[in-house]
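Can't paste images in this forum, so I'm doing it all in text. The chain is below; anyone willing to post the predicted structure tokens underneath?
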Amino acid sequence: MIYKNEFIENEDGISCQVLDLESLNFDNCPLGIKSKITKVINAKGGEKILTITNGGCEGVYIASKGDAIFCNSESDKYVPHNRDGKAWKFCELEEHNYDVVKSEKDCVYVRSNNKALLMVECIEKPTCIKDAWGKGSHQFLFIGATLKKDLNNGAISGIDKKAFEETWTILNEIENEKE
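Text version of the structure:
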């Protein structure tokens, strides 16, 4: 990993070094997919989304009306963003390659068709992806986290170690098990 000579503190006051995204090479990384069915809530607006991991607060985001709040668990919530920093909207989930498998009032359950290249458990120190979800909205990653590069839009973000283990599947491993 190549880092910039810049540090940003997360909500817990942990100093995290800024990762140099331009230096990352995903050429020989395995392909994976989020395999868990995920609850997505239609934001009313103003919700403070805290993503808490074993290392501390990974990110903070204030939702706007109509944002898609992904909920893997009570502590693992987030609003995905496009590369330009624009939040995903609840009404646009299918445009982002998610299939709705169940609908309820103000929420749906979705399965992802998005594949990503994965640098599994590559984070070895407190790390920051600066402006991951738009200007001033950073993602903080801790030891054991995985980096992913979305094949659809090229966006790079991180996945907490526990969240990765509970929600992702490496496709190459599935293919190897069949042999």
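The longest strand covers residues 3-9. Confidence is low (pLDDT under 50) at residues 174-179.
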